[in-house]
Amino acid sequence: MARRRALWAAAAAAAVIAALAGLLPPALPRLDDRLPAAARLALLGLLTDGAGVTVRTGIPHGPHPRQLHDLYLPSRPGRDGALILFLHGGGWDSGSPEQYRFVGLSLARMGHHVAVAGYRLFPEVTFPAFVADAAAAVAALRASFPDLPLVLMGHSAGAHVAALLALDPRHLAARGLDICADLAGLIGLAGPYDPLPMFGMARFAPIFPEARRADARPLAFAAGRHPPALLLHGADDAVVPPGESLALAEALRRAGNRARAVIHPGVGHFGILAAIAPVLAHRAPVRRDIARFLAGEAAPGCPPSPARPDQPGAPRDRR
What we know:
CATH class of the largest domain: Alpha Beta
CATH topology of the largest domain: Rossmann fold
Strand content: 15-25%
Structural class: alpha/beta
Number of domains: 2
Number of helices: 12
Shape: globular
Helix content: 25-40%
């Protein structure tokens, strides 16, 4: 853990040097194209104001060194404030909570309690161990903040894990939790919700044992009653096609759930996440999307009589 934080500090320093060297123009127009992933995240962390936010790091939700979460607590919680559990991306084989400081700070300054959670990674574990770790984080947070509505949120691989927690009830049930009673919503950013093509790639095939792959497809669990879902995607995403979000939103609505996908033009795989930071909010109105969802759609419990897709007021996808 100490070594990982030291490497993270080095990446942050590299990001500052790159910025000062003029590698990034003042407007940061294409941050997702200019620097390695670690440096991009580090720079956003440095450029995000943390005033009014209390940060607590390294809180365990399990015995493993990666089973930790960082908490970002607002000094002035919003009237519609939620408890957001953010799960980081990284292809199920990389990433850590401290890299996503800008996400925690940005959302906490919007008035929400935020937990950025880690989980075990390949090659140490394979599916579904990292989903079980995320379920452990949900259980720990429900115990610590029982009065706040809990919303799952994730980017890329983290969105995949968050979607499985929200759609396949077995993962939370193993912790004595229920998706309708204990979750208020799902926010996915650039998630691979039907990752069948990935299972054939050399990098990802060993992460998902063939015998368990049917259980690794969030889209396969769209039927049934689920919490409200907001699925955000960049139209220029060259890593995970935007159709993944559109297909899951449509499947959830077809099953009678409240779900919508929003596809933002001119934004790529990293850009949809980076737009959470105030410094890059001009890239896409992701902060507005999240705020509206949390204030008007996210709510504890699944609707007893879900709206059909053809009913007035049912959510619609936006491109």
